[in-house]
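It would be a great kindness if you could assist me with a short task in structural biology. The matter concerns a single protein, recorded as an amino acid sequence and a row of backbone structure tokens. The record follows directly beneath this note:
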Amino acid sequence: MHTVSTRHASLTSLLLLTGGLLASCNSSAGDAQPQIPLAAVNEVLFLSDQQNSNLRFDNGAVYHKGGVRGLIIVRQNVSSYLAFDRNCPYHPLDTCARVKIDPFLRLYDPCCNSQFSFQGQVQGGPATRPLRQYNTALSGNTLTITN
């Protein structure tokens, strides 16, 4: 009799734990929106190239190939650069979900009207997730972007 009640208690505990884990997985993002698809990123950007001249001053930004829908590179200061995927995190599978550089120091998706800071954080619109960020490494005038 003792083993039956111990098994019942163990089974109940296991079911409660499993249910709690499943509930936390489903609510981790706070919504059921799909994630941005994964893409291998290994890009090299030469800061001395003319097409990257906006990266010669703080808060300058340029487009670059790579990622899911392209990359946006932002210079924070002379030794720090950020790289974001242009794929908007709000309905990322929509064909028009592509983030653009606004000359008024923000990034935005004209499709859904989401707005992001130059640090990739949500500033407005329906998006609730920040932009996908990639790793950057600076060596001289060469910026390497990877994931």
The helical segments are 2-26. Residues 42-146 form a domain with the Rieske Iron-sulfur Protein fold (CATH 2.102.10.10). The radius of gyration is 21 Å. The mean pLDDT is 83.
